[in-house]
Specification:
The protein is an alpha/beta fold. The chain is built from 13 helices and 14 strands. It folds into 2 domains: 28-215, Rossmann fold (3-Layer(aba) Sandwich); 231-356, no CATH class. The strands form 4 sheets. It has an 8-stranded mixed sheet, sandwiched between helices. It has a two-stranded antiparallel ribbon with strand order 1-2. Strands 4-5 form a two-stranded antiparallel ribbon. The protein binds adenosine-5'-triphosphate. Residues 7-248 form the ABC transporter domain.
């Protein structure tokens, strides 16, 4: 899958002067019934990939195969049916729900579009079912989005996605706009609904803790590419790609004794622009293990390094087995720039290159 957005200039934006390589060669499979977590820094292409999977964004190259059917070959009714089976839950329910529509109207809209509102009695029963499934009172139907709290609004967003009986839900940062106290409730709700309705999830999040909790498998994206993929347990226990290692090492551990002993890998510089990505391995400009020539000339394939564990690094085994050591760079620790937020998000250092051990 590739999604390149043209950068246009000129008085009527008629000249294409370059491209934003938002998704640049990602190959992944989400298995039926699982939760696949997609993580990475802001701007690495997670949302674009999720939208392209649902055909909300047209890919520049590549294809989406859902249940054995190539979506690019579908048109008309078969495409509408496929679309019904794949729904999205958005980050900010306030901006994804039309404030002028009542909850009833928001929920019926999708059902109507797909001919699922057969008669009044069964529609009313279905609405009651949906509200109960997401834990909202039946009195909610006549109310409007602004009358609800953030967590409740996200429940409406989830009910809306469920209203058309999907098989796959792409949840794009489903809890990051919510108070921490409410996040766990919504995550638990998503898990309960998965068990109840046999749903498959692709959950996009920058928060490693959320992804770890909810995912069976995790994919890590960096600058338009997938750099590592493994089962959640495996990835968190044994991250192999230098970028993933750095992300994991930035998550604070509650035990101060363990925290003191931990290796912290700090990355140099900011995320490069996806309009002008580095040559070779996209991560080489920030990688403490980079090696001459190969890393900056050849883009590594995502390859299976351990069973079910794919890594896009030329030197994954050498780094794992300690044959290549991280570059010793003069300590230049700027603590103020080290913005590891308590929610263990991917906020990173601004200008630090050092491996502390
Ligand atoms: N419609 C668009 N036109 C042009 N550029 C876009 C468009 N949508 C996204 N981009 C760019 O593509 C890159 C990837 O964006 P995307 O939103 O997919 O990243 P993300 O990892 O989901 O980040 P975030 O968590 O901040 O949403 C960014 O540089 C973004 O500015």
């Amino acid at each position: 899958m590739k999604v390149h957005f043209p950068i246009r200039r000129g008085v009527v934006l008629d000249k294409t002067v370059g491209y934003v390589y938002a998704v640049d060669g990602v190959d992944l499979a989400v298995r039926q019934g699982e939760t696949y977590g997609l993580v990475g820094e802001s701007g690495c292409g997670k949302s674009t990939l999720g939208r392209a999977m649902l055909k909300l964004t047209e890919p520049t190259a590549g294809r989406v195969v859902f249940d054995g059917v190539d979506l690019s070959k579908l048109k008309g009714e078969p495409l509408r049916t496929m679309r019904r089976r794949m729904q999205m839950v958005f980050q900010d329910p306030m901006s994804s729900l039309d404030p002028r529509q009542s909850v009833e109207s928001l929920l019926v809209e999708g059902m109507r579009a797909h001919g699922l509102d057969k008669d009044k009695a069964s529609t009313a029963a279905r609405l009651r079912e949906l509200l109960s499934a997401v834990g909202l009172p039946s009195t909610s139907l006549r109310r409007y989005p602004h009358e609800f709290s953030g967590g409740q609004r996200q429940r409406i967003g989830i009910a809306r996605a469920l209203s058309v009986q999907p098989d796959l839900i792409v949840a794009d940062e489903p809890v990051s706009a919510l108070d921490v106290s409410v996040q766990a409730q919504v995550i638990n709700l998503l898990e309960d609904l998965q068990a109840e309705f046999g749903l498959t999830y692709l959950v996009i999040a920058h928060d490693l803790a959320v992804v770890r909790h909810i995912s069976d498998r995790v994919g890590v994206m960096y600058l338009g590419g997938l750099v590592e993929e493994a089962s959640s347990d495996q990835l968190y226990a044994t991250p192999l790609h230098p970028y993933t290692k750095a992300l994991m090492s930035a998550v604070p551990v509650p035990d101060p004794e363990v925290e003191d002993l931990r290796e912290r890998i700090l990355l140099a510089g900011d995320l490069p622009s996806p309009a002008n990505p580095p040559s070779g391995c996209r991560f080489h400009t920030r990688c403490p293990w980079r090696q001459e020539t190969l890393c900056d000339t050849e883009r590594p394939e995502l390859r299976e390094v351990l069973p079910g564990h794919r890594v896009a690094c030329h030197y994954a085994e050498d780094i794992r087995d300690g044959r290549i050591r991280a570059h010793e760079v003069k300590a230049q620790l700027v603590q103020d720039d080290w913005d590891v937020s308590p929610d263990s998000s991917l906020a990173g250092p601004a200008s630090v290159t050092e491996t502390l051990g």
